[in-house]
TrEMBL record:
Cofactor(s) for this UniProt protein: pyridoxal 5'-phosphate
Coiled-coil region list: none
Protein name: 4-aminobutyrate aminotransferase
Domain of life: Eukaryota
Family membership noted in the UniProt record: Belongs to the class-III pyridoxal-phosphate-dependent aminotransferase family.
EC top class named in words: transferase
EC identifiers of the protein: 2.6.1.19
One Gene Ontology MF term: 4-aminobutyrate:2-oxoglutarate transaminase activity
Keywords recorded for this protein, A-Z: Aminotransferase, Pyridoxal phosphate, Transferase
Parent sequence residues shown: 4 to 416 of 500
Amino acid sequence: SAVSAASATCSKSNIARGIGRLTDLVFTSGKGSYVQTTCGQSLLDFTTGIGVVNTGHCHPRVIAAAKAQCDNIIHSQVNIGYHVKKLELTETLMPLLPKNLDTIFYGTTGAEAVENSIKMARAYTRKHGVVVFRGGYHGRTFGIHVTPFPFTYHGITPEMAMNELVQLYKDTLHEEDVAAIIIEPVLGEGGYCPAPPEFLKQVRDFAHSKDALMICDEVQTGFGRTGSLFACDSDYYGDIQPDLLCMAKGIASGFPLSAVATRREIADACDPGMLGGTYAGNALSCAAAVETQKVIQEEGMVENSRVMGERLRDNLRNIQSSAVSKGLIGDVRGLGLMTGLEFAKEAEPEHHNRLLVGCNGRDGAVNGSAVTPTCSRTITISRPTFPEDRPKKSIDTANLNAEDIESLKKSDP
Ligand code: PMP
């Protein structure tokens, strides 16, 4: 390993504690769906770096493209000129985007994509306010108005959520205040909950009826994770045609890059100088992104995400109804490989922790997979869409009793 276990322990104490970290693992390498740690563990990575390495860790074609780009140019600064790979990426992305969107801005992080989409919406509408949905996560940068996301498992039906949005306008906001309503088609950090298709359409129509724009934040759902390239353009959601679409994470397999796609008239509301960023649309990231798009298409990863996601949820539902779960799994939901498992109210923190501990390769359960808790009782499972690298070993059964094992065998031999 590049970092010895001793020095890794020492330098950890120099890292700011403001980052909520799920594990204490130190990673040395990643290949396909697996990551290796300084302790010599090989773990099936269900987190994909929170929906980033959709092509698997260190896909050889993406790495080769990035290495080749290093020999050409790494940084050319957005305010100085274009670079070839940005233009190539734009040409690659354009036919993949919802058909109403024809203009792209590149940034570096998801938060930047969201922030710049809001900047454009404000410039275009000449209004200021922004409405977001409770549980939504759009980065760590700005102030907003919050309204409930439709979350049937938590008693919030789509009708209730829509009524709350209407009520928010009546009580607090004025039509002339709100520039945009921003929504994740599938709630990410808030618990992997897909919005019903009808709800997304209602939100779009409501926004337009108030002269506000609809921003789809597909930072986490984009690039195949939900079983379609973009959720807002999928068979499941239909042709939503958002006014602005935010992308990041899966766009470049882990190289920092984000983008906002919109209509020319909206983008042009921002005069030169209003948008930018030193590393925005970095050449290395764009080269990786061009190859990422080819790999996603040519290796059938979108379809794989849809098929594997259905299989994952079927099996999780089997476990949910089996003796193993003892009624502790309340809900299994998701789209594609963006799948969430939520504990029932009866579950104690100990059950939650037991699964996480087992999954994190502690307590001897080395062959587990890393999972991400996204809200207090939810675990998200979003393993790479990498098709060749499916889990080959079975669950470590050391801590299970005979009844549990029988039940597991039935749910997935
Ligand atoms: N939007 C969504 C839906 C996200 O999930 C995230 C990150 N989890 C962001 C925006 C912010 O992205 P970044 O961390 O790259 O700034």
